[in-house]
Amino acid sequence: MVRFKHRYLLCELVSDDPRCRLSLDDRVLSSLVRDTIARVHGTFGAAACSIGFAVRYLNAYTGIVLLRCRKEFYQLVWSALPFITYLENKGHRYPCFFNTLHVGVCKVEIFHKLLTTVTHMPGTIRTCQKFLIQYNRRQLLILLQNCTDEGEREAIQKSVTRSCLLEEEEESGEEAAEAME
User: Fold this and answer.
1) Which of 35, 78, 28 is nearest to 67 (CA)?
2) H or E element: which one contains 47?
3) Cys bridge to 7: 74, 100, 118, 129, which one at CB 3.0-4.6 A?
């Protein structure tokens, strides 16, 4: 039996228009990425990336997207993302771009002109989830520093505190389970 290895690309859809994110659908996004790959890499790229390609996670409120593709062809998907400049859905066309947050391989590159920044690259969906938790926590801390109102500051502090407490409870629960064994 042959095991097919996958890579996961954690991206953020950035748009000035909030309606762009709210109109997101995984089928629309999947076809948009596939069409862009075909446009950039031709028939070979479209055929190579169509096998095993899927939108595994989509959060319309934050614009976070988790794409899965075959390990051999993740660079084709990754290199096509900067060429997505708009999202077309239900007859509307919204300007946007993808900010790649996390990709599955050990390498760090920055493409300033293509608006794509890769900060960390592991190979599994679990490491993408861990990175997303850390990324969201950093974003909350940035929001906390930029607060002008005391009410906003308290609400963000409660959110950060709750997420830290939940993580500590999970860690202590794992340690307790190991101690019982």
Assistant:
1) 78
2) helix 26-50
3) 74
**Nearest in space to 167 (alpha carbons), one of 133, 125, 128, 135:** 133
CA distances from 139 to 15, 95, 142, 146, 170 (A): 17, 23, 5, 11, 22
Q: Which residue has the tokens 């999970």?
A: 170
Per the CB < 8 A criterion, the answer to whether 49 and 38 are in contact is: no
Q: What is the pTM of this model?
A: 0.68
Length of the chain: 181
Residues 6+ away with beta carbon under 8 Å from 143: 156
Which H/E stretch holds residue 111? strand 110-111
- Give residue-wise pLDDT tens across range 67-125: 998 888 888 998 999 999 988 877 888 888 888 887 765 333 334 434 444 544 556 77
